[in-house]
Amino acid sequence: MLPAAIELTRAELYEKVWTAPLRTLAKEFGISDVGLVKVCHRHEIPLPGQGHWTRIQFGQTPERVELPSLQNPRLEKITIHRCEPRLRERPANVEPVVTSKIHSCDRIVTHVAE
């Protein structure tokens, strides 16, 4: 069973973020990738840019942004609380609604054979 919370230092999370894609790390931590991005922004951890992992895949070595120093020392420790994925379930008494619309640009052709 996975622990309910993960404790890291800011430097540890910085290293993880720059060595694996956020989506992979988020699954490891038990949170969403958007949640992980928010944690990184809150703790002033720079993230790899768009296309970073593709560049690495093709043999390039993209530049790595240095971890800036902090003004607030309380942001040095990070606790990530796992969350259970929420399933979107339809209430039992609600039937799905299917509608079909014919727009004015759609043409309906009817051929009558004699």
What is the compact description of this entry?
The chain contains 4 helices and 2 strands. It has 114 residues and is α+β, with helices and mostly antiparallel strands.
**Percentage of β-strand residues:** 5-15%
Count of DSSP strands: 2
Cα end-to-end separation? 73 Å
Element order: H for helix, E for strand: EHHHHE
The portion of residues assigned to helices is 25-40%
What's the overall geometry? Answer: extended
Keywords:
114 residues, single chain, 4 helices, two-stranded antiparallel ribbon, 2 strands, extended, alpha+beta
Q: How is this structure best described in words?
A:
With 114 residues, the chain is of the alpha+beta class. It has a domain at 5-81. It is 28% helix and 9% strand. The chain has helices spanning 10-17, 22-29, 33-42, 52-57; strands at residues 5-9, 77-81. It has a two-stranded antiparallel ribbon. Helix 2 (22-29) packs across helix 3. It is extended, with a radius of gyration of 24 Å. The mean pLDDT is 83.
